[in-house]
TrEMBL record:
Pfam hit, one: BPD_transp_1
Membrane topology: Multi-pass membrane protein
Name of the protein: Aldouronate transport system permease protein
Similarity comment: Belongs to the binding-protein-dependent transport system permease family.
Domain of life of the organism encoding this protein: Bacteria
InterPro entries hit by this protein: MetI-like, MetI-like_sf
Bilayer-spanning residue ranges: 12-33, 72-98, 107-126, 138-155, 192-215, 256-275
Keywords from the named record: Cell membrane, Membrane, Transmembrane, Transmembrane helix, Transport
Organism (species): Paenibacillus qinlingensis
SUPFAM superfamilies per record: MetI-like
Transport in keyword set: yes
Length: 290
């Protein structure tokens, strides 16, 4: 069926507009990538637009040769894996409990909704973390954010959409709540688990504020705190403990910053393809169903 000219013009404008927006959004990433591989002379003469004429790995050798950077990466990986597991464990178990008929269920839901509107603030939260002895430990980056109230409500709603006939059949077969949760609810909730696994993992990986707030020992600093010192504070001592002027033939500070950003971003980007199969279904949680 032949489409009218106005419709084809409209589609063409949309395509070109989306292309321009995409290129605009991709340019900063291309620039970071290019600058991280450039030489000092090219950078000083502003010869890098899209790709450098001469490709060098000096910045990557510098940051990957830093024990501080590598250790911070391992701390971040540990916090991301452990924190995501704790988030999913607490969120799913609590959400499942809220789907069962139990005493005080409405009160708990009300208290959860209250936390969406009001928070204790930085100082009371810091005092709680300090009183529980979590300061200067990786648990300070995990336990205070063990459950996200909004995610908890959405996961609970997903559990409620599972046909109750499956639970009734399992009860007739002698299954208890733990067995139903482990063998029926969780397998049917893979899209939800994949979506929130990605959300929690990205949150832990990108989080730097709690590291600044609760971690005074540089040994437990995550990679985002190191990046903050490199990029925002322009602290060249963040990786080696000494100023770049004391290092023989150091790469430009700007290339070090770009290389550190790229290396710190790459691992979390590699996680997405493994969750993509379930992610499209998971992001539709809470949508209206007819």
């Amino acid at each position: 069926m032949k489409r009218p000219m106005s419709s084809r013009i409209f589609d063409g404008i949309n395509v070109w507009l989306l292309v321009v927006i995409s290129v605009t959004m991709l340019f900063p990433f291309i620039y970071i990538f290019s600058v991280s591989f450039t030489t000092l002379e090219q950078y000083l003469h502003s010869e890098v637009l899209l790709f450098p004429r001469v490709w060098v790995l000096d910045a990557y050798r510098y940051i990957l040769g830093s024990s501080t950077f590598i250790h911070a990466m391992w701390i971040t990986i540990l916090v991301t894996i452990l924190g995501t597991f704790v988030n999913l464990l607490f969120t799913c178990t609590f959400a499942y409990a809220l789907t069962r008929n139990m005493y005080g269920q409405k009160l708990m839901l009300f208290l959860i909704l209250i936390t969406l509107l009001f928070s204790a603030g930085i100082i009371p939260t810091y005092l709680v973390v300090k009183a529980t002895g979590l300061l200067d430990s990786i648990w300070a980056l995990i336990l205070p954010v063990a459950i996200a109230p909004f995610n908890l409500i959405v996961v609970r709603q997903f559990f409620l959409n599972i046909p109750n006939e499956l639970n009734e059949a399992a009860v007739i077969d002698g299954a208890n709540d733990l067995t139903i949760f482990r063998k029926i609810v969780l397998p049917l909730s893979k899209p939800a688990l994949a979506a929130f696994c990605l959300f929690y993992a990205v949150t832990h990986w990108n989080n730097y504020f709690t590291g600044i707030l609760y971690i005074n020992n540089p040994f437990y600093w995550p990679i985002q705190v190191i990046l903050r010192q490199l990029v925002v504070q322009s602290d060249s001592k963040a990786l080696t403990g000494m100023d770049l002027a004391m290092v023989e033939n150091p790469p430009p500070p700007e290339t070090i910053q770009m290389a550190a950003i790229l290396v710190a971003t790459l691992p979390i980007l590699l996680v997405y393809p493994f969750l993509q199969k379930h992610f499209a279904k998971g992001v539709m949680l809470g949508s209206v169903k007819g």
